[in-house]
Structure formats: C-alpha cells, structure tokens
Amino acid sequence: MNDIKMEPFKIYKFPEVAKHLLILLWIIGLQILLMICDHIHPSFRGDLHFLLQIIAYFILYYWAVPPFFSRKTTKKGVLRLIILILLYGSIRSLNSFHGGSAIEFLYFIVSFNQAMYSLANLTLLIGLNFLLGLFRYNEQLKQNYIEALEGKILAETEKSKIESIVTQMRLSPHLLFNTLNYIKEKADGVIPEIVLAVGLFSGIIRHAMTDILRTQTVLLSEEIEKIKNQIELHYLLANRNVFIDFKEELDDSIEGATIPPSTLLTFIENIFRYGIVKDPDFRPCISVHMAMRQFTFSTFNYKRLNPHPGTGMGIRSVGSTLGYYFPASHELHIEDTKETFRLTLKIQM
Q1: For residue 98, what pLDDT is reported?
Q2: Are 219 and 257 in contact (CB under 8 A)?
Q3: Where do the domains of the chain lie?
Q4: Which tens digits make up the pLDDT trace of 292-314?
Q5: Could you give the CA distance from residue 267 to residue 315 in angstroms, rounded to a whole number?
Q6: Pick from 94, 105, 171, 277: most CB atoms within 10 A?
C-alpha cells in the first residue's frame, strides 16, 4: 500500500501582536476623542490614566478573563476579577485625588462620580476582553476538533497499513505452520526443549497473525498469556540465562476485556531487543494490573550499550492502533533516557 500523505488542516489566526496593537489604538483613540469632546487638555495624570487602562487590558486578557472559559476555574476567574476591580478603582482614584487626609481619600474613592468613572472604563475593557475570549475559545475548540480528526485519519491509515501487512503475511500461512509442525514432530521425544520452543513460537505467531482481520481484537487474558509464553521462549533461547521480574494482579473484571492483538507483545519484544536481560542486578520489570476494568501495563528496563538502532515504528504503530480502538480511554506515557526506558499504558476497558 502506498503511504497516504495527509496535508495538515489550517486555521487562520489573526496575529496576536496585530490584535493587541489594534485594541490599544482603539483605547487611546477613544480617550483622545473623549478629551476633545470635553475640552480636556493633556496632562501627566491623564497619561497615567492611559497607562492604567493599558495595563488593565493586558491583565484582563491574560490573567482575569481566561479562567471563565473553563468550568473548573470559574470561581478563580470571579476572584481575580474582583481583585482587579478593587485595585483599578483604588489606583485610578489615587491618581485623580488632589490631596487631603486619608479619610478624605476614602470618601473620594467611594464617591458616586469616581466610582462611575472607574466602573465605566473597566466595564468597557471587561466586555471587550470577554468578546476576545469567546473568539479564542472558539479557535481552541476548532483546533481540538481538527487535531482529533487528524488523529482519527492517522489511526485509520495505520490500521490499513497493519491490515495490509497482515494480509501479505497470510498469503501462505500454512507453509509457516506446517514447517513448524514438521520441526516439532521430528524433535518430539528427542529434544524436548525444541518441542517446547516451537510450540511457544507457533502460539505467539498464530496469535499475532490470525485474529486482527477476523475479530479485530483478542481477549486481554490471551494477550497476557502470550506475554508469559514470549518470556518463556526467550528463556529457552538464552539457556535460562534471562532475569525478568514479572508481576501480575488481575481481578474478575478482566473477563471479556479485549485488546488489539500483539499490542503488549510489541512492548515486551522491545525489552529483549534493546534492554539488559541477562544481568540479575539490572533485570527488567514488567507489571500487569487490572482492577475495576482499569487496566495498567508498565515496563522498565536498562538499555544495553550500543544496541542495534531502532526506528521506533513498532511503538508508534501500536500507539496509533490504541488511538483508533481506545480514542478517549487510554493513556500511553514513555520516558526514554540514555540509560533507561519506562513505559506505562492505562486503558479503561
């Protein structure tokens, strides 16, 4: 199958700097117009009013208004808005006050005219920022939708590639299994280790090849069983010189749970390919846990020195497959350092 080249979706966004410049020009222009209408001459106090409005605009834009567009932070937004209103009114009143006692200043702050001036200026800025916030929120929704759509298309593409590869492998599956059965029969009663190794290998290959096109998924319990078989096979291949800590905690909710075939097997194979498995002091750790239909699979291993370089295609392919089958109910976290590799997969079944 030819690779599908997908052009990224584009959303036109008005430049942030240009947006702020237009808003600042509008604020300054409006104030100049009011000064002309009221025959007010420029002054140092007036310039401070301009500066205060500009600062209030940016505080509203980046700090006070954004929490209102999330249900979890609405209360935080209300608190920030109250703080801003009190500070704005106090600073503006201080700039307009012409001297006197502290009591006179307090009376000046709460005076009707001063309160109305402050509230009118700030209300205009608040309304403007909520309007801009709505546009930003709408752009974010569009971006999230496009990212989800691109992810779905990518997952569909990966699924098609996987199905194509499996179909090609299935062109003559009988030849592979007949050959393995021949080796098993010839070694039966002569070399028991070969019989066991061929049996384990046949089961793993059959599990990986025969189910994806027919049933799309396999039982999670079968996948975990194949993990044990895979580890046992490597034990045999290395003359039992393999050290792995395998921990299994599964409750009854595993019954009926399914997963795409070879999902976990791919992660295990990476351990044997790139990790240290023959040193008991640096043994890999593998854990499978199932409780209340919450499945957690984790691995940790130290890396071998100068391993064969990998392309990462196996893990990326598994990640795309998980995104297709569990789009909103799985988490895959990878910590890849120079010396260690840690993977954690969580799926809500």
Answers
A1: 64
A2: yes
A3: 16-150, 211-348
A4: 999 999 999 999 887 665 555 57
A5: 7
A6: 277
